[in-house]
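Below is one protein, fold included:
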Amino acid sequence: MKLPLSVARILRIVVALLFALMLFVAVYSTAFGVVSVLRPKLPTALLLVMAITALVALVCMIALQKTGLTFSDFGFAYANRKYIYAALAIGAALSTCAAFVLSQVVEPGPLAGLAIAPGLLFAYFFIGASVQEELIFRGLLQTIVAARVKIEVTPRFAIVAVALLFAAIHLVVGPVTAFFAFILGFTAGELRARSGSLIPAIVCHALFNAPGVIRSFLQ
């Protein structure tokens, strides 16, 4: 019996979201599982989480090429310079706004209390986190949701859905941080979708993280 079109659409969306959530859990549970077994010091633990999650995400992308997707589909492509310029401008504006608002509320910020050398802090959170998180969220997850949902809903559905997940994992820091994580996620998702590349999203993310890194330097 053929399902009504509306029900079929809903099921397609649910399956796409569940599959993306499964990939998310697989990526991060692998990394945290290794860290829980090895119990390294904090700098090494952060490096392991970033490296393992990025590696698992890449393995997932390779496996998913059997479905017809390519690395180019996952955002491994050059970006037109106008999107790089847009990422620079938007990232700077968002980071300035977020830094001001967070300075007015009682939230510690995602980097609070991390006893890490300034050079490592810069490498981990200005460069490492920007590349790693965009690879996972805008590269792997957004691509999968967009590919599976296709034209069933608005083209921005995948962007919003992944941005909400990105915000949710930042709720542990605080609601204001989570709100700005959603804004960053949506913006990076738009840049990724419009440019066809992860590069503008990474640039925007790095600039967004910059005030937090600088503030940690000064503390």
Summary: The chain has a mean pLDDT of 88. The chain has seven helices and no strands. Residues 5-218 form one domain. The CA atoms of residues 116 and 151 lie 45 Å apart.
